[in-house]
Each structure stands twice: as structure tokens, then as C-alpha cells.
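Translate sequence into C-alpha cells.
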Amino acid sequence: MILIKAVYLLFAVVHPITELLSGTNLRIFLNRVYYKKNRDDFPVSKSRGTVGSLAVLVLLVAALLGRRFGVDWWCLALGLALADVVQHVTHFALRPRQAAPRIHLITILGVALFLPWMNRDGKLDLLEPWPLVVGALIILGNWGYNSWRARWGQ
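Result follows.
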């Protein structure tokens, strides 16, 4: 179990870090390719991109906590990872030959594949799916907000 957690932690750390590196910078990819703006800081600024990637890192690592402090961290991370997989599949479909979408997709798939072993309870409470929904809304809400800003030039 320690090896599985170590592999999960590796993917959970590598995924957001690759989004910040120059050759695979997700912020620049989103601004120039996905949102089709000439600037690499609109609608996703450098500070928002960095804070966002670090927030993802914290939430993915928090999955190791299980159900503590009134939050099912595993379920929250699952919602985030599943929404992020959808986002990165979309990016990969747009630019399959570029390194950034491919690396981001591979690392988030690694997170999603190893995430079930982080569930300490061994069950998913579908009657209280709010952590799963909140995790997904973090990614999808950010995408929606950035899309709105790019469309209206805010």
C-alpha cells in the first residue's frame, strides 16, 4: 500500500508542476491555443495560473487524508481529477502533437487510476455526493469563468 500511495503522490505532484513548467505551461497553452488570444496572460494570468495549479496540488495530496475534518478528501479529489481528465482530453484532441496536452493528460490519468486506492473507507457515499460535485465544479467553474472572460474581453 505504501508503494501505491507513493506512485499516486508522484502523479499528484508531477501533474500540477508540469502545468507550470515553461515547455508545458498550461496557462500559455490555454491563453494562446484554447482561448485563441494573442497574449499569454489573458484570461489566465500568471498569478492565477500558479495559484490554481498549487490549489490542485493541495487537493490531490489531501486525498491521502481520507475522511477527516468533516470532508471526504478522496471524493473531492476524485471529482477534481475526473473533471480535469475531461479538460485535458479536450486539450489533447485540439493539439495531439504538442507536448503540453499529452503530458498533462498522461499525468492526470495516472492520478485518476491510482486515486481509488486513496479511499480509506472503501466505499463511495452516493447519498452525499457534494465533495465529488465540488471537486468537479472547481475545474469546470474555472473553465467556464475563463471562457466567459475570453469571450467578452473582460
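Note: The domain at 2-152 is CATH 1.20.1440 (de novo design (two linked rop proteins)).
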